[in-house]
Amino acid sequence: MSWLGGPKGGELPKLGLIYRIMRFFSRSLMSVWFRELDVVDNENIPQEGGIMYVAWHPSGLIDPLLLHASLPGKLSILAKHTLFKIPLLGRLIKAGGGLPIFRASDSDNLEEAKIRNQKMLEEVGKEISNGGKLLLFPEGKTHTDSEVKKAKTGAARIMLIALRKAKEEGLVPPNIIPVGLHYSNSKKFRERGAVILERPMKLPNIPPIVENDDEQQTLDRLWTSQVTDFIEKELKRASHSKISWEERRLIWQGRSVVYAERAIKNGEKIRRLSFAESVLGARRMRAGWEYFTANNPKKIDTILLKSKQHFEELDNLGITPFDVAAKPEKPGIGGFIVALIAWVWAAAWMFGLVTWSAVLGNVPPYQANYLTMWGLKKKGIEESVHATMKLGTAVIIFPLWWIFASLSVTAIFLSKNSPIFILLNKHWLLAYFTQINPILMFIILLIWWPVSGKMHLNLYSRLARSWLSLKRWSNWRKNELDWNRLQKQQREIGGLLVTLGDSLILPGDPEWEDPPTAEDDFRHVSLR
Fold it and tell me: Which of 240, 224, 162, 173 has the alpha carbon at shortest distance from 200?
């Protein structure tokens, strides 16, 4: 993963040491949590003026941590004020640029909560008008739904304050940038993710200042309501919002079939796309899907039925559309042997020093984290915060174990009464290990446990990939699977989808023009 560099300019605020440490912490966590990460379209970030980044919130703490790691410059994040009361987690959020937001629904004293909240909004608005960067989740809370929830007015209210202050002081007006968050599975460890930075929103002119307070409030509320609606629609477009997860899954599976069919027709080798490329393909598929659903649903009813039946059959057989598309005409023993050698090679390294160190340094806290999550699930915590709790407990449990393990191993190696110390001193070369400074050994071990864990994850990823390849070659050589029928069926679906796609101007095509702010992609799709 190559993280975005910070914006350049002498007048930009410098990142403090604590913030740099927290960003390093966020990036380290995210590079471990995800096996693949992409940040796309960073050229959409304006070089001047403040920025408010807005994103949907499908995965608890994962969302702000990923964006804190990905977005350039010093980022402020508005978070529910109750999070700041959680030991350690609250300190980490604050050090990473977090600012507490006081919602009226979270307090018994509604008037006091409104006053404190308004004061916070004004301070944040002033910061953005002076070139600050803010991250907001306008839905207000995390959720597990497949579509964007109704946006709150806070983002629009802050932007109105910021635009007015910028205008008063003759500063560059700030922008709102919608961010698309896409996960292959945000609740599972070592999945794939992508951060898509959309173009800045075009907002209506801010309401004029009038003498009558009631009239002013009415004008401001109308502007705030309109901009909130704009933000919600932009988030739906950026996140590929759909009514159900089944529809989202069909879109992603359809995308893979379309890619494979185009590759076959062009005589290209079918490869695993990066997650960012897959997201663009899913955006095109969604736009075409929505276009025909709105304008000519009968044209895609047959394709939808065939696609559902085909994908259900593949699921029952335990194979994927990629397996069907990539199958060689005659899968010989050579490919199977290559896959087997790759798996054995990765497995051999797995049993080396790196893996044993990773087991000692990371398996006990991992199991402790698993048991903690099991207990929390038994108590009925919401599914939307599973990833948050898993990360939060890991942040506490892992460092505590690394300290304990470092102290224990240092004592075992350097204590004169230790059997290991006595054994090492029987050989003149190994005896040098018992003469290492205890503090130095403790520091080396403290660094080594997480490093060995990350190295182990890379080895494990190779092992998993080679195992999937081995399994794929094994399936390809099975005579009981009717591969010819499956390929014919998939190519028929792919051909129909490609034909429909070629009849449209879709996102990513040379002729495509991004729709105006608050207008979905499918409304801008046109026939060729």
Answer: 173
Question: Look-up: residue for tokens 């929830």?
Answer: 149
Please name which of 339, 358, 347 lies closest in space to residue 472, comparing C-alpha atoms: 339
pLDDT (0 to 100) of residue 375: 84
Cα gap 67→62, rounded to integer Å = 9
Of 225, 253, 15, 49, nearest to 131 (Cα)? 49
- pTM reported for the whole predicted model: 0.78
CB atoms within 10 A of CB 80: 18
Contacts of 42 (CB under 8 A, 6+ apart): 4, 72, 197
At what angle are helices 110-129 and 154-168 packed, to 10 degrees?
50
Give CA–CA dist 198/230, Å, rounded: 14
Distances (CA, A) of 190 to 35, 92, 184, 186: 5, 23, 10, 9
Angle at 166 between CA 161 and CA 167, to 5 degrees: 100
Q: Could you write out the DSSP letters of every residue in 49-110?
A: S-EEEEE--SSTTHHHHHHHHHS-S-EEEEEEGGGGGSTTHHHHHHHTTEEEE--GGG-S-H
Residue 104's pLDDT is 60
Beta strands in 126-186 (DSSP E): 133-136, 175-183
Predicted local distance difference test score (pLDDT) of residue 498 = 93
* pLDDT at residue 307, as a whole number: 93
Tell me the C-alpha distance between 329 and 332, whole Å. 9
Q: Write the CB contacts of 521 (distance below 8 Å, at least 6 apart in sequence).
A: 237, 283, 286, 287, 290, 507, 515
Q: For tokens 């204590």, what's the residue?
A: 415
In this prediction, residue 353 carries a pLDDT of 61
Neighbours of 159 (CB within 10 A): 30
Rg, Å, the chain Cα set: 27
Q: Provide block-wise average pLDDT over 10 residues at a time, the chain (528 residues).
A: 59 70 83 84 87 91 88 82 72 74 65 76 89 91 84 93 94 95 79 90 94 93 96 93 79 92 90 87 92 89 91 91 90 86 81 73 83 82 68 82 91 82 77 82 88 78 83 86 93 93 93 91 91
Q: 202-239 burial, b if ≥16 CB within 10 A, otherwise e? A: ebeebbeeeeeeeeeeebbeebbeebbebbbbbbbbbb
What secondary structure does DSSP assign to 260-320, as a single string? HHHHHHTTPPP-PPPHHHHHHHHHHHHHHHHHHHHH-THHHHHHHHHHHHHHHHHHHHT--
pLDDT score, position 54: 96
Q: Which domains does the chain have, with CATH numbers?
A: 17-238 (3.40.1130.10), 245-331+479-527 (no CATH), 335-476 (no CATH)
